[in-house]
Amino acid sequence: MDFAPDSLPSLDTPETSVDPPSFSVPCCASAPHAQLDVLYRHRRWTADRLTVYGALRVVGTSDARLLAFAECGRNAWLMQAADHPGEYRVRGSLCRHRWCQRCARERSRDFSLQLQARWQNADLRFVTLTLRTANPALKPEVERLVASFRKLRQRKIWKSTQTDGVAFLEVKWNATAARWHPHLHVITRGTYLPHADLKAAWHKCTGDSWVVDIRAVRTLNEAAAYVAKYASKPYDSRVLEDPARLIEAMLALKGKRTVIPFGLKLKTRERPDADKREWIPVAKLSAVLAAARAGNEVARLILSRIGDNDQWKHQPKICQSDTYARAP
Length: 328
Fold this sequence. Notes:
By secondary structure, the protein is of the alpha+beta class. The protein has two domains: 5-96 and 275-326, no CATH class; 107-262, Alpha-Beta Plaits, CATH 3.30.70.60. Helix content is 38%, strand content 23%. It has helices at 31-34, 36-41, 46-58, 63-70, 101-118, 138-154, 156-159, 195-206, 220-230, 243-253, 285-293, 297-306; strands at residues 23-25, 74-81, 84-93, 124-130, 162-174, 179-190, 212-216, 259-262, 279-284, 312-314, 324-326. It has a five-stranded antiparallel β-sheet with strand order 7-4-6-5-8, sandwiched between helices. A four-stranded mixed β-sheet has the order 9-2-3-10. It has a two-stranded antiparallel sheet with strand order 1-11. Helix 3 (46-58) crosses helix 10, helix 5 (101-118) runs antiparallel to helix 9 and helix 6 packs across helix 8 (195-206). The two termini are 29 Å apart.
């Protein structure tokens, strides 16, 4: 029997604070259940994920990377907080691929937390840097954009006012003009930088581009949301509408950094607020999903508590039996 993500019960949280009773989940590694955890992890972008996978094959992605992408979320376990039995999270094998939206979202969250910890009470600004399109091909435009930003950081006006920050490369497709529009979203710490001065400096670095934007960051939460948004993926939805366009974007960004820190270091596998509590394996996520699909109310309640805020952490193996029951 095939499994469709839409067949999962609603993830709306029931209006109850009563911990659910224990439930038994049969040991089942048969084909119908083997991929439930993967489907659940990627349920919000199933169609786009297939498009991305097809493009990755075309651009020559290695078999190992393709397999990791295809099985991202496999062997996932439901974990329960030892000190708070009503709190759950998920741990499983993750691909950490740039083009995996789920992994990118979690990576951007990690970046955001690192920057929040570093930039308490800092004077921050949002800067957007764009190019006047000079080449219809994407790759040379991306290279010119990144090189121009490197030149900008060496200019006196920038070095005398800005101390550190991070830039996020985003590639957009302008359907009206039928051309690429790569640009940089930058969040930087420093002192006041006049818009006119930034505009003039950017023109000198690019030779032809004037359009820039700079504005003060009002709160640290606003900065965190900005980082989480632009670090999550290097392309907009229009890029996925045409496989040929997606392939060109992949080739243009291959080997390029889409997250560009300056004056600081960002660690891709570190979360400053890492949970130090003990987390106990409860059951394989695929078994919980199968139980929910079969109508088990406890399994449904647990999934509702995870919802869209499921926190996936990389944990390739948990040494525990596949068959057991545990009281949530």
